Amino acid sequence: MAVTWTRAWWRWTGGPTTRPVERVVRVDGRSRADEPDDERQAFGRWVRKRPRVDGGKRRGDGCGRRSLSPTWVLAVGGPQSAGRGGRVGGVGRDASRLAGLQRRLQGIAGGLAVYDEAPDNVSSSTYSSTPSLPGCRVAPGRRADAGLPLARVTSNRIDVEALAAMDGVGRFREVLPMLMDPVAFAEAFVSGDAAGGCRVPSRGMERHRATLRSCGVASDARSRPAFAMKAFTTPKKDGRTARLVLDARPLNDAMRRPPSMDLPRLRDFIAEVERHRFAMQCDGVSYFYQFPVDASISRYFGIGMKGCDMLLNVLCMGWSWAPCIAQRASNVLVRDLGLAWVDNFLVLGGTLDEAERNVAVFRKRAQAARVEVRAEGDDALWQVRSRFVCVGVEFDLAAETQRHRLDPSWAERWVDGSGMTAVLSGRATARQFAEVFGGAVWATDILAVPRCHFAALLSFAGRLGGRMVGAAAPVWDEVVDVPPSARRELGALRKIVRENPWVVGGVPEDTGSVLWTDASSRAWAALLEAEGRFVDGRQGVFAGPDADAHINLKEMLAFAEGVVRLCWAPGAQRCRIDNAAVVGAVAKGSSSSYAANRVLSRSLRVAGRRGIVLRPDWVPSGGQLADPYTRGTSLPRFPAQLPLPRSRATPFDLF
Predict the structure, then answer these.
(1) Residue 552 in contact with residue 582, Cβ under 8 Å?
(2) Who's near 332: CB < 8 A, 6+ residues apart?
(3) Confidence (pTM)
(4) C-alpha closest to that of 474 among 124, 10, 102
(5) Which element (helix H / strand E) includes 595?
(6) Which pLDDT tens digit goes with each residue over 200-245?
(7) Long-range contact list for 244-248, CB < 8 A, 24+ apart?
C-alpha cells in the first residue's frame, strides 16, 4: 500500500452521492463542526469536480461554475489507484470500513512508510489543516522559521545518578525511573498497553538529520518506533536560530498526567529574590537535551521522517513529563542556595560573601552532576550582580528598597507587536488574542496589577477559551470580534506596561486591626477589631438585584463594604472571611465571575489609594464573629467586647 498526495477539486452535492467514492480522507481545513449534520454521519459526500480550463460545462458538474478552492487529499489505495487518472474517492458509509481506515491512518501499521510532500506552491493554511477523522494528523505547512538552522545543541549528558544522590528530599528520585526504567515507563500508560503504533510524519526535518545525529540528540531508527511523532522547529528569541520541539500529544494522551513540577509561583519567586542583595544567574545549555534516556525508552520518542525515522536519545521537549523532570532536577542543584525556574538558575545571597560562597557550592554540584551551564546575555559566568534580568523580570537589588519591573525588551515587543495592533483594532485571530492575553497575565503578575480591573477582558478570554478547547488548528486562525470594553481595558494595561514602573518589594507593617465580614441570604455585616475589641462596624440588607445574587457575590459585596467604610489606616490589613471563593479571589486579585471582579476592583482601588494591602484569611462559619449581625442582631455600641465564637471549629472540620 502506498500513500500519495493528490490534487483534486470538490463541491458539496447537497444530497446523497450517486457514485461510490472510496478510501479518501478530506483535509481541506474545515472542522467537523462546520460540516452539514448528515455529512458527519456519512463521509464521502464531497464529490470531485474537474473544471475545464475555459470554465465551460462538464458532465457531472451540475451548474458549470468554477470549482471550489483546491484541497489536498490523502489517497490510500493499491497500485491501481495511480493508473486511473488520479481518481480519488471518499470514505463510504460502511462504519466498519471507516473504522478500519481510521485505525490504519492512526496506527500506520505496515505499509504507510512513504510520505510524498506537497508542492511548494501550496499554502500552509491548506496543507496543515486538520483532517475530518478524529485522531488523525497530517504534516504541518511551511512555517516562517522553516529556513532557520537549529541552535547549538550540546553533546553533554547529565549524570542523573549523581544528581539523584544529592537529592535530600527525594522529589527528583521519584521521577528518575521515567528516564531509566522501562518497566516504570510502561506502567505510566493509562491503558496499560505501551505498544504504541502511532506514526505522524514531519515536514522539512530531513535537513536537520545530520545535525541531530552529530550531537547525539537523535539516531536513525533500526526498527519501527512505538511512537513516531511530528517534529517542528520554533524560533528562539535571538531570531537567528530555532529549537527542535516534538509534538508528543499522541504519547501524552496515552500516559497518565505527571506529578507536580514543584515550580514556584511567580509572586513567591519575586518575593524570595527581593529578600536578598546579590545574585548569580546562569542557565542550562540545551538543558532538556542534557538528560539521557535509556535506549529501551527512546523508541517511544520517535521522529517521523521521510525515508527513515529517528529516535531521540535525550529528554523529549514536548513530552508532558519533561518539564517536571527538569524542574525537579534544577531544584536539587539550587537547594538552600537560591531558586530555579526550569533551566534558569539563580543563586542568592544577603551579602557579597554569602553569595560567593553559595556560588562555589553550586559550581561544585553542577560539576559533580556534569551539568553544563552558561551565563545569561553578556554577563560573565559566575559573576555576582545586584541588577539583572531573569525569567522576564528585571531586578534591582542595589536600591535602598529592592524593586523589580518587566524586562524592558519584552515589554516593548508586547506593547508594539502586531498581535496587539490587531486585537486593539477589534479584528484579530484567536491565536493573536491568546498570545496577547497570555502576555497580559504575565505583565499583571509582575507589575502587581490586580486582574479584576480588567473584568471585561477576562470575561471575553474565558468565553473564547471555552470555544477553543479541543478545536482544530484552523479554528485558531479564524478572526474573532473583540468587544470594545475588552479593548478599552487592554489599552489601559498597554499604557501601564509602556510606562513599566518599578514595583517596590517588601512587606508593609501590620495595621494592628482585623476586618470581619460576612453575609447571609438577606443581610451583610462588617466589623473592625482592634486591641481585642470591636471599634467600628456597619450592617445592611441586600436590595434590588443584589437580593437575588449568588451567595459568593453577596460575600464579596459585604467584604467591599467593609473595606470602603471601615479601613483607613495604611499597611497590611488582615481580613477574616468564611467564604473560600472570596478569600481566593482577594488573594490573587481576580475571580472567574465578571460581577465579582467589578466589586473586587472597587475594593482594591480604594485600598490602593489609602496605601492598604489586604491580607485575607479563611475562618470557619462557627468562628465568624460577624455572623450574628447578618441574622437580625443589631450592632452594639462601640467600642464593644468581642462575642464568643459559636464553636471551636477549625479548617480541618470540613474534611
Answers:
(1) yes
(2) 163, 166, 167, 171, 172, 365
(3) 0.71
(4) 124
(5) helix 594-609
(6) 888 878 888 888 888 888 999 888 888 888 888 888 777 788 888 8
(7) 244/150, 244/208, 244/212, 244/217, 244/317, 245/317, 245/318, 246/301, 246/303, 246/312, 246/316, 246/317, 246/318, 246/319, 247/137, 247/200, 247/318, 248/301, 248/316, 248/318, 248/319, 248/320
